[in-house]
Design a protein that fits this description.
single chain; globular; 2 helices; about 140 residues; mainly beta; Alpha-Beta Plaits; four-stranded antiparallel sheet
Length: about 140
């Protein structure tokens, strides 16, 4: 329902739980197929309290669910390359921003996803792009 209100097209999936069924607090219900900048990713999440949380992106699982509120930066990188986080903290420092939360996923095909909660959105991601496979910035 929240996705539809935000203008996103929502299609049912065999594992999708209708909105009138209340999932268990720690369950991973709510499978949704989304397309971010033309690249399809299968995303699984749920709601904890009133905050949507991300549990999985395209098979990569987050050990601790990643909250999706406020300015959020999501990127995918080679698991062996730690330069993206260092570059990002430098960008935040230059912009006077803060890293509020950091969640990384399991490794799938040598890559891993990171979800970062920021104090404010970054206006320029050009310095980060050479260090990542994909990057998305959202304000939820």
């Amino acid at each position: 329902l929240l996705a539809q209100e935000a203008g996103l097209k929502v299609r049912g999936h065999p594992g999708f739980v209708p909105h009138d069924v209340v999932p268990e607090p720690d369950s991973s219900t709510g499978l949704v197929q989304v397309s971010l900048q033309g690249t399809p990713h299968q995303v699984m999440g749920t709601v904890q309290g009133s905050t949507p949380v991300l549990r999985q992106i395209s098979g990569a699982t987050f050990k601790q669910p990643a909250p999706l509120s406020g300015p959020v930066l999501i990127y995918r990188t080679k698991a062996s390359d730690t330069s993206a986080l260092a570059t990002l903290t430098g960008l935040l420092s230059k912009a006077g921003g803060q890293l509020l939360s950091y969640h990384s996923s399991s490794t799938v095909a040598g890559e891993q996803w990171s979800v970062l909660g920021l104090s404010a959105p970054l206006s320029n991601l050009s310095e980060l792009k050479p260090h990542v496979t994909e990057v998305f910035q959202l304000h939820l």
